[in-house]
Design a protein that fits this description.
The protein is α+β, with helices and mostly antiparallel strands. It has helices at residues 2-18, 22-28, 90-98, 127-145, 163-176, 183-204, 211-218, 229-245, 249-254, 256-268, 278-298, 310-314, 320-333, 339-343, 347-361; strands at residues 33-36, 42-47, 50-60, 65-72, 78-85. The protein folds into two domains: 22-145, no CATH class; 163-361, no CATH class.
């Protein structure tokens, strides 16, 4: 049933994606009369007998492609910019809004993009998102000029091994070879893994697996290997853990928010609770995760239905509801062991689903 729902969601999402962009543009530029041209990325926009153009541009962001609509007047100046579609994590997209990044392009001429100093500073903490917005802008303006900008966001051609990648490799090694660690050293290794996860991946790297990532992968949105090496390394570790030992090493060793809950449980004496109702809670958790992923796929925006509290904890951004939810789970973690992981997180059911498939395909010998 789960597989069927995902397949249906993908089919519906593809059909919605194939629909004409005109309806989205009419909603975003409701004060203009918009008509299509022979190019699906170029539209005419009329207002008070003055004709302008709306150009569409698309480029890769953090979780997926960003689609931008740019209104250009008769003098080839940018007068209005709308993001029609994106798959960015809420906290990263919010940084773009808060910094009014789109406003830095307004009233600029298309020719300005062909100057070496035309690249605006990337938004700290949202480098890939701001880079995706800029490159989408370049792609849109290029439709009218037929040129390519000399300026560009730094595109990595080599695999970048930094602190997050090193931390991830080390955490996976700890998880895979935990059985080789002597009993007297296991507490030390566990504390070391907690520190590496929270500091290296959480507060410094800000790299956590979310249903936005999962939804993007299901939609076939695979980023380039060099620039997004961390995510391929993360995915490889998850699959290896499942295939070789049917283990969920990500949730048990890697996830920074899981390790935060481990610390809080030690401080408050949190213990496993509600075991009597555990199966009911897990079913609710599974259904919520499935609905969120399927809805994100249907609307071609996996981040839209993401409800993790990670951005509030490690990026200090998010909606009011997110921070309230985060506070609730922090308090609960003092008394209940890993309440988010066990009863709310959508990532754990997703990985466990792959484990169920593995169990069917590769049953354990009796």
């Amino acid at each position: 049933m789960t597989l069927l729902i995902i397949i249906v969601a993908v089919i519906i999402g593809v059909k919605k994606e194939e629909q004409d962009y005109l309806s989205r543009l009419n909603a975003a530029f409701s004060d203009f009369d918009i008509s299509s041209t022979s190019d699906i990325y170029k539209y005419k926009a009329s207002k008070n007998n003055v004709e302008s153009f709306i150009l569409l541009g698309e480029s890769r962001g953090y979780n997926g492609n960003i689609l931008i609509a740019v209104l250009i007047d008769e003098n080839e100046e940018l007068k209005r910019i709308k993001i029609l579609k994106h798959s960015e994590t809420y906290s990263f997209y919010k940084k773009i809004e808060n910094k009014k990044y789109l406003d830095t392009f307004l009233n600029k001429s298309i020719s300005d993009f062909y100057q070496d100093d035309s690249v605006p500073d990337a938004i700290s903490g949202a480098t890939y998102t701001s880079g995706g917005v800029y490159n989408a802008m370049i792609n849109a303006s290029g439709l009218l000029s037929g040129k390519q900008s000399k300026a560009s966001i730094d595109k990595k051609t080599k695999i970048n091994i930094g602190l997050p990648e090193l931390c991830l490799i080390l955490l996976y090694l700890m998880g895979f070879f935990n059985y080789l660690i002597l009993a007297k050293h296991r507490n030390l290794v566990r504390w070391l893994s907690i520190f590496i996860s929270i500091i290296g991946l959480g507060f410094i790297g800000k790299k956590l697996l979310t249903i936005a990532n999962i939804g993007s992968f299901i939609m076939g949105d695979f980023p380039d290997f060099q620039s997004f090496f961390f995510w391929y390394l993360l995915l490889a570790g998850i699959l290896m853990g499942i295939i070789l030992g049917n283990k969920n090493h990500y949730c048990n060793w890697v996830c920074p928010f899981g390790r935060i809950q481990d610390l809080l449980a030690l401080i408050g004496g949190g213990k496993p609770r509600f075991l009597k109702y555990r199966k009911i809670f897990i079913k609710i958790q599974n259904i919520a995760a499935l609905l969120a992923i399927a809805s994100g796929i249907i609307y071609r925006n996996p981040a839209m239905t993401s409800y993790e509290v990670f951005s509030g904890m490690f990026a200090f951004t998010g909606s009011g509801i997110l921070f309230i939810s985060l506070g609730i789970f922090i308090v609960l973690s003092l008394f209940i062991k890993n309440p988010w992981c066990n009863y709310a997180c959508p990532v754990k059911p997703s990985i466990n689903y792959l484990r169920r498939i593995r169990k069917i395909l590769l049953p354990e010998p009796k």
